[in-house]
Amino acid sequence: TLHPAVAAAVRLLRASDDAGSRADVARRCGLSEWHLSKLFHEQVGVSLVDFRNRCRIERFLELYGDGRGVKMTVAALDAGFGSYPQFHRVFRERMGHSPAEHARRMRGG
Q: For 20, which DSSP code?
């Protein structure tokens, strides 16, 4: 079972597109940033930042859908990314291709 603060951090990061900084998350979970980061990595197997980025990519994919209802930049910012360059970097690292390639694939091209 997860430490209560780690479980709270997981819930917070999954539920919110803007959970705040790592320090904000730690404060809201009742631990120091260092202690939460250490426990989180030990118990979840990835860093808090990596987990947050995974959650943001999942939210982006839900918001963007097939790309017909919302612009990519709007979906990325609504998913919690601070800027399009940050989103692009994280998307490419996580998905193995660019957001533009993803859009082409979603359109069937």
A: -
Are 3 and 43 a contacting pair, CB within 8 Å?
yes
The whole-model pTM stands at 0.88
Cβ–Cβ < 8 Å for 33, 23 = yes
> Following CA atoms 78, 82, 85, 86 in sequence, which dihedral angle do they give, to the nearest 10 degrees?
-100
Amino acid identity for residue 46 in this structure: V
Tell me the mean pLDDT in the region 56-66. Answer: 93
Q: Given this model, what pLDDT does residue 109 score?
A: 64
- Residue pair 98/88 in contact (Cβ under 8 Å)? The answer is yes
- For 30, the 3-state DSSP assignment is coil
Q: Is the separation of the CB atoms in 25 and 56 below 8 Å?
A: no
Which residues, at least 6 apart from 15, have a Cβ–Cβ distance to it below 8 Å?
Answer: none
Q: Which amino acid is at 73?
A: T
